[in-house]
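Repro:
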Amino acid sequence: MIEYITNIEEIDSNDLKGFFVGWKKPLTSEEHYKTLENSDYFVIGYDNKKSKVVGFINALSDKVNFAFIPMLEVLPEYQSKGMGSKLFEMMLELLQNIDCIDLTCDTHMQEFYEKFGMMKSQGMIKRKYIK
């Protein structure tokens, strides 16, 4: 059974294994934990039977008008089962009083986010590890 939690004290970095598949510079479990801990909002999908985190989403916000969702990830073996949608819906609920919610994603993910009322936009990024 999957439980959705918003309390970082319910997990530790050992629960955060298997994420960032295909990333050029994947986060360590310790960095991942620190990222969640430092986020203004997050939701974690936790598999009680396997005692591990299987999905998460986080957001950074001024808590007045703007929020940015940098990551939404679900472990490969849990994908295509609705968890990403559930995590995103829960985050939108947490951000319900924020008017401007932004995220960046790969082109192939745009259709997923459009289902939640997100609109295509243009932006700029800098990645120090890309030369």
